Structure formats: C-alpha cells, structure tokens
Amino acid sequence: MPAPAQAQHEVEPHVQHRNRIPLASPIIDAEMKEAALAALENEKLVMGESVHKFEEEFARFCGTKYAVSTASGTAALSITLQALGISHGTEVVTTPFSFIATANAVLHAGAEPVFADVEDSGINLSPGKARARVGPKTRAIIPVHLYGHPSAMDEFLEISLETGLKLVEDACQAHGAEFGSKRVGSIGEAGCFSFYPAKNMTVGGDGGMITTNNAELAEAAGSIRDCGRDKNSKYYMGRIGYTSRLNSVNAAIGRVQLRRLHGWNEARRRLAALYRRHLEGVDGVVLPPSERQGEKPVYHLFVIRTRMREQVKKHLEKNGIETGVHYPVPIHLQTPYRQEYGYMEGAFPLSESLSNEVLSLPMYPTLQEDDVVRICNILKDSLKR
Ligand SMILES: Cc1ncc(COP(=O)(O)O)c(C=O)c1O
User: Fold this and answer.
1) Among 10, 30, 159, 351, which one is most buried in terms of CB atoms within 10 A?
2) Contact yes or no for 71/49 (Cβ under 8 A)
3) Ligand 1 atom index nearest CA of 105
4) Long-range Cβ pairs for the range 373-381 (8 Å, 24+)
5) Domains in the chain, start-ordered, CATH in brackets?
6) Neighbours of 195 (CB within 10 A)
7) Which residues line ligand 1 (CB under 6 A)?
8) Cis ω on the peptide bond leading into residue 242 (within 30° of 0)?
C-alpha cells in the first residue's frame, strides 16, 4: 500500500530522523499529551479552564495586560483589525513579503491592504516606505516580524505617534522575540500570534493569540471570536462575530509548550550562531540580517539568500536535507492579488528578489550541532558544482 500523503509537508512528528534532516520538527512530549487528555476528561471542551489560563500566561509572557486566544493567526489578525473598528473604506499598510495571511486578514476585515516594500538590505517592512504609503484612508500599519526577526518598532512607534495610526504587530513567526526591553506583541496596539505546528511553539494544531494592553480591544476581540457574545452571556450578542475560538485541549497543550518556549528559543539562537559561524564569508551566500543592538530574534526560520537556490536546494535534498522557500511568490503577485489589483512584476522589487533567492535551512530546537556543520559543508559543496 502506498504511504499516506503527508498533510503538511513542513511538519513532522518528533521522531528519530536518522540521516534525514527535516526543515522543522514540532515537539509533542508526554506532558503535553497528559495535559491534552486531562483537558478532554475534565474540562468544558470549548472555553474551558485551560483557555483562560493559557491566555493569562501568554499575556504575562509577552508583558501585556490581556491575551485573547483564537482559532488561528489569521483570525487573530483579522479579529484585531475588526475590534479596532477597521473595515470597509479604509486601508492598512503592510509588507508584500510575508505569508499571504497577513494581507488576507486585512481583506477579511473588509479593508484594503496597501503594500510597501521591505528595508533596503533587510527582510521586514521598511518604516520609511510604509510611511510614504499612508493616505487619508489609512487606519493601521502591520509590521511583520518575519522569520522571528523583530521589525524596527522604534521607527514604527514614531510614525504611529505622529499619525495616530494603529500598529498591529504580526508576530506569528516571532514568539518571544525582543525589541529593546520588550517582547514583540507588547509594543504596538496589539500583537498577533500563530500556533500552527511549525511555529516556535504550537498548540498541537491550528491556533492563535491576540496580545494587547487595551481593555476595550481585548473585550471586543474576545466577543468577536466567540460569536459576538456579550461578556458572560450565552445568547445575548452585542456584535456580529465568528466561531473562532481556541479549543480547550489545544490550550492545554499550549500551556506546556509556553513553559518550554524560552529554552527552545535559546537553542534556536545557538544553532543560528553556529550556522553563521560556518557560513560567514562563503561566496554566493547572504546570511540573515545581523542582530541590531537591543534586538533578540528567535529564528523561527534560518533563511539565507543565494542566486544559486535551485542548485543548492537540489544538492541538499539529495543528501537528505529538507529545505524550504518562504516565500516563492510575494503577496502582490499571488493570483487573487494580481486579479483584484492588477499588480505586475516590478511593483516591489526588493520583495521580488527576496522571493527569488531565499532558502530556509533546517531549524528546530532538537537539531543537532553536528547536523548544522554537516548541512553547512554540503551547502558549501553545492556551490562548487
Ligand atoms: C507572518 C504570518 N502571518 C500570519 C500567519 C497566519 O497564521 P495561521 O496559519 O495560524 O492562520 C502566519 C502563519 O503561517 C504567518 O507566518
């Protein structure tokens, strides 16, 4: 019988990999399984105790007063915008070099995404280019902390102070990353996280979280993700909402994952330093952005740039090393965006050249150091071919 197709190419259970090195490897350990089972046996399956505890603990971890869980990172973004009153007839500025959900969430809220290109020698939305796209209909800016690298939040805060625009951090790839003395998700008006299995932490499936210090926003988001319910009422609805809650069993897993997150992030940072040491100065390879002072990235992905991507990728794969491309098409060139807005090649040249050159190397906390050395050696070998 043929092996069943793997539903999510990037995601594998935590197993002994022998000679094969996957791109990502989520960890579900015995304590998480026990927590899931306990939630199934003892809690309300929806909005049970684990959900409230996970929200409290996640808020504490990020340094915000509130956290509101959702069914996904996309829902977290879209619900945040809706809770801020952003809807039809308004615009939100963001980057075209992200997972498509960042811009889709703006459309889900009823607003229009307006793109600005990335920093000149970086991967994140350029504050200057974003400011240049602000117009009378703009209500918010969404900087994305791509691959776990914090955006230049000091500059975005300045723009926000000057213009009154809301800053919504897309922290879906950056759980625990720091900018200055703060964790991402606590710097703008709100932060949005994803718990999709390949992320720095998961809930054992899809899930999301909104973090904020704004009580009104937290209240509105909590209602919108829960069918529009008024607080503490079952059938009195103050808003048009969605069924977009995080299940109790997933929250129970998330609570255990959150306790491991710091250690996992430290492991990712150590592995990233090792990659850097072995790839520094290699002709044909551009390393991820160096860490600016006061910044602590969490390397959701370790992404190099190379013009010889296909050759390198093929050689690594031939040697049992899985790689990824995040993302081969920038959002503005994805079919629905081309169709709806008429975008063409050349609209955001820096994002487009990133899309042509980025290559994600294996990165997960249990990746062995000698595997990193092996990956780097095979990579260097591939460039000589
Ligand atoms: C930058 C970014 N934004 C938003 C999302 C959406 O999160 P989810 O897949 O949980 O809906 C993701 C997830 O891949 C992401 O990487």
Assistant:
1) 351
2) no
3) 4
4) 373/274, 373/278, 374/21, 375/21, 375/275, 375/316, 375/321, 376/275, 376/278, 376/279, 377/278, 378/315, 378/316, 378/319, 378/321, 379/279, 379/282, 379/285, 379/312, 379/315, 379/316, 380/279, 380/282, 381/315
5) 30-255 (3.40.640.10), 261-384 (3.90.1150.10)
6) 32
7) 72-74, 98-99, 101-102, 144, 170, 172-173, 194, 196, 206, 208
8) no
pLDDT for res 232: 82
CA of 221 to the centre of ligand 1 (A): 18
| Residues of the chain falling short of pLDDT 50 | 1-16
34 CA to middle of ligand 1, Å? Answer: 27
The residue type of 330 is P
CA gyration radius, the chain? 21
DSSP codes joined into one string, 24-53: ------HHHHHHHHHHHHHS-SBS-HHHHH
Pocket test for ligand 1, best of 74, 94, 108, 301 (most atoms within 8 A of CB): 74
Q: Ligand 1, residues 194, 201, 202, 354: which to mutate, most atoms within 8 A of Cβ?
A: 194
Predicted local distance difference test score (pLDDT) of residue 19: 77
Tokens matching residue 334: 């994805």
**Whole-number pLDDT of residue 18:** 57
Four-residue CA torsion sign, 51, 57, 58, 64: positive
Residues 6+ apart with CB under 8 A from 281: none
- The length of the chain, given as a count of residues: 385
Dihedral through CA 201, CA 207, CA 212, CA 215, nearest 10?
Answer: -140
